[in-house]
Amino acid sequence: MIKVFITALAMTATMTVTAQITQKEIKQNPFGLVYGGAITQNEKGKVNIHPVTYKLNGIDIAANVYTPANYDTTKKYSAIVVAHPNGGIKEQTAGLYAQRLAEAGYITIAADAAYQGASGGLPRHADKPEYRTEDIRGMADFISQFAGVDVNRLGAFGICGGGGYTLKATQTDKRFKAVATLSMFNSGEVRRNGFQNSQLNSIQERLKKASDARMQEAAGGKIIYGGVASITDEEIAKTTTDLYREGYEYYYRTHAHPNSTFLYTLSSLQELISWNAATDMDLLNQPLLMIAGSKADTKYMTDEAFAKATNAKSKELFVIDEATHIQTYWKPDYVLQAINKLVSFYKTNL
To answer: How many other CB atoms are found less than 10 A from the CB of residue 287?
Structure first.
């Protein structure tokens, strides 16, 4: 049974991304990166990675900055902030895309969300929209001060839940001159209605549980968590939706990392259920690119938000044929298509 804690670039076709990362490879990577083709050492004349920490509202944020080959602090570069998926961390697909974009000449940053990954904040695994949106603004704060960054050429890129939070952050933060998402996941809509509107009849019941969880937290009791803590191969095989079946495989098998978890504080539902990434999309007036797989069972979220971006300076929906949501995280051909499109988009708009 699934265990849930109730207590307690332009790039070429030669780009290589391995489909499965072994635990031995993870341990051998000094930066903890678990994606294929990851940097294992900083070499002169190649893309380099710079682990950094900074403060955001008093919380220590752990991030990786990627600099292009032959990076020169006296020159000026466009920069892109990369927001990771729900349950994800900077060492997984966010890092993969950050590295590939750096290979195309951009300075990029991928940070662990506050309360998650290697970043600070208590209680652990809090997943509140205002925190995740502030994380994106915080990455902009930091990277704008990084040597060589042209603050007038700052782009935003969000994956999955990070895509939804990126839409929300860039609606009001006009430091971002171009906005892109990949396999966008509207966390609030799903927490409210259930995935594919499967929980419409239990909203009030779930809000009651979230309220009780917060009361228990306030009284100094144990933190109540929702989400999947561990899962068996048999349970993965029986999962009917591509998003969750392939997500379990990605996060618990092929690209597992000890800092990555599907857990979230149940009290977070109070904020999530009343939040929606697709509201106020008319405030977004920057160029917008949204990427989704044609077979992604989450594509309806991208379609909804895209249609509401009525004031975007320009907008494009780019569909990767045959791709599912999770496959855009790692599958070489799909990653290559996404990167090529992103590079073209940022080249035009930054």
So the answer is: 20
